[in-house]
Amino acid sequence: MAIDFTLAPEHEEIRRRVRAFIQETVIPAVKEFDDEGKVTSRQEYIHAILELRGKAQAEGLWLPHMPKEWGGMGLGHVELAMVQSEAAKTRLGPWILNCAAPDEGNMHTLLHWGTDEQKEKYLRPLLQGVKMSCFAMTEPEVAGSDPTLIRTNAVKDGDEWVINGHKWFISNARRASFAILIAKTEFDVPEGSRGANTAFLVDLPQEGWNDVREVETMHGSTGHSEIVITDLRVPDSQILGGRGNGHRLGQYRLGPARLAHCMRWISQAETALDMMVDRALNRYSHGSLLADKQGIQWLIADSAMELYQCKLMVLHAASKIDKGEDFRTEVSMAKHFVANSLNRIVDRAIQVHGALGYSTDTPLAHMFQHARWARFADGADEIHQMRIAERTIAAYQATGSTNAATGGLPL
């Protein structure tokens, strides 16, 4: 089985163009805005970002994850990995190319599950960059890693559904024109059934959708809302993907979305490693540069090895998605490993920078705050470990070998 991650010449050219656009156009333009918590002029911030989005469209660097017939670049997941990693050299890069979460995952979901009418009403504006969206699944009362426990419920009333419930950590809710809302609609199925939930398209703002607050996190209050839903009425035509398919739809959305997060995290980890090496080459202490000290060399070596593993895992998982193969185990492994590696590599970079790294004079402190989120976003570490173990055991039981659960590689 050949495994070749060499990019075709046309894709290598795209990578070069994305890198040049991010480094030469985006980063200089957003240097005052890259930390949203420090933005002093909201109007200036919005103007700058929208201007950059227009330039991305003009450069043909828009929607790298979407098919060409929908205005995208038509890239596979292997090619998308290099675009996402280049874009994520700045926090705003993926958003400027219109391939940032949660809109990116919602675009995939609408394209796959939406009716023609739903695609025109909801998908088209997302692709054009004139509207934003959110995905409302997580709830405070139950474990977010187990969607079968969702308590938000929808009851049929004629041609409408009446929805009541409680959601939180709904990213982008305050900016969204619509939500994909997951609610329980089937009450006569066994507890834990994956056929109990349904996805609804909810126009925002709307009576019954009450945005209570933005939840304050380690990196501030930047768009994760708590929502109380009270007698929200939604027409039957607003069901997305069919009644009882909410769990399947959510898992379809989360698989590639997890890998897209990994692509962006790799970029952040690489930035941290670059900063670590640069610091080591320029900081003199106790008779030599830090780069000459074995303890620092180990930190650099461990980070380089982990980053190499991250890149290979993401590329292999992406190749399985492109081939239409079962990618669940590989994506779970990549998501777990890359998230943890990001935390370790940024932490080492902070250590090499000393007190400077702990300050906000470099981006490392802010990167570390964001990195901690990676270990539970789109599935906590422990959930992925549980699924990986289950599939490893199942592979052995089925074939007498665990090879299929470790990438199915020819060695």
From TrEMBL:
Biological process (GO), any one: fatty acid beta-oxidation using acyl-CoA dehydrogenase
Any one Pfam family match given in the protein's UniProt record, by short name: Acyl-CoA_dh_N
Similarity comment: family membership: Belongs to the acyl-CoA dehydrogenase family.
InterPro entries linked: Acyl-CoA_dehydrogenase (IPR050741), Acyl-CoA_Oxase/DH_mid-dom (IPR006091), Acyl-CoA_Oxase/DH_mid-dom_sf (IPR046373), AcylCo_DH-like_C (IPR036250), AcylCo_DH/oxidase_C (IPR009075), AcylCoA_DH/ox_N (IPR013786), AcylCoA_DH/ox_N_sf (IPR037069), AcylCoA_DH/oxidase_NM_dom_sf (IPR009100)
Keywords in alphabetical order: FAD, Flavoprotein, Oxidoreductase
A GO molecular-function descriptor: flavin adenine dinucleotide binding
Organism (species): Planobispora siamensis
Keyword Transmembrane: no
Acyl-CoA dehydrogenase/oxidase C-terminal domain boundaries: 244-391
Protein name: Acyl-CoA dehydrogenase
Domain Acyl-CoA oxidase/dehydrogenase middle intervals: 134-230
GO cellular component terms, A-Z: cytoplasm
Cofactor(s) demanded: FAD
Keyword Cytoplasm assigned: no
Organism classification: Bacteria, Bacillati, Actinomycetota, Actinomycetes, Streptosporangiales
Origin: domain of life: Bacteria
